[in-house]
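pasting for the record
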Amino acid sequence: MKIASIQIYKYTLALKQPLYVHKVEISQREGLMVHVTSKEGAEGFGEIVPLEGWSQENLNEAYEQVQFIISTLVGEHIPEAIEKLDGKFQSWLEGVDLHPSVQFGVEMAVLNLIANVRNQPLFKIISETGHDHVRVNALLQGTRYDIVQQARKLKEDGFTAMKLKVGGSVEDSIAKVKAVSEVTQGKILLSLDANQSWSLEEAVQFGKGVDHGTISYIEEPLKNVYHIPAFYKETMIPVALDESLLRFPLDELKGVEGVDVLVLKPTVLGGIEKTWQIMQQAKGLGLEEVISSSFESGVGLLTLANLAGGASRDHAAGLDTLKWFRQDLLKEKLVIEGGKIDISQRLVRREDLNFYFLREIK
């Protein structure tokens, strides 16, 4: 297929409440939508939305790069079998050092174009061993009372995995975990996220103060990643890496004792193909991989759900972020039912988008 045109839209979506990412307050999500049209008239849409506090680039820098990539790709043929995610995107875009969020959005648009041409959901074109219902790791937030009420409701709704933010006060974090565990009674996997907030001493104190039987893993418990083996030796709680994947190559981290899980955010990691290749590498190393949202709209979230659905192993994905949004780019809301997202029939087409929020800028 040959790319005939690329349009760029800008959007602003209101949040129900401020979002705090590494101490950066975000009150709304601003991003870009890439609209790719083939010579035959097929369309694909991809979302570019850097996450303040996480992404190395801001939206203006992303837009400048998108303007350049338009002049590069219009008139080009999309390589055959690029959807196999085996390096053809890298070869096709060789010489263009794209920001991670831009890489993600461009790849998303091209892959959604191919999915629309074939009239198949994205997970089916990238994988032969996928699953059409993706389990979601429900996100607990608020006070101890709030999270207990949320956990009780989520349990009733059929969720099998929940995620709780910890960090700061060790005593308060222990109390929150115990409160949630009383509700779940060991029947729901609980993952924790400390955002690199603790010293080794604090992390060990926390680990010894909670019931290990209720915890599947803890994300980034330590300020110093090299203290993970000591933490694991003292607590036997498996560790997941998230922020560290941006600072260290996987080859350097794969042998760290205690690391069992990789939390993968394609928007900040560098796109769909790179994330997919890390997923395959993780599988070979015996590590679990968890696809996680960077607070994209429903368009990006549906793509992430398809990426998780394309995996051969069924891990609960970190996709419970749309509840922060007051508005969305999808007309039909992406529903989590029974703790899962059904991706068996969902495509991203023009008629699925709410153009009220999209303003063409290119």
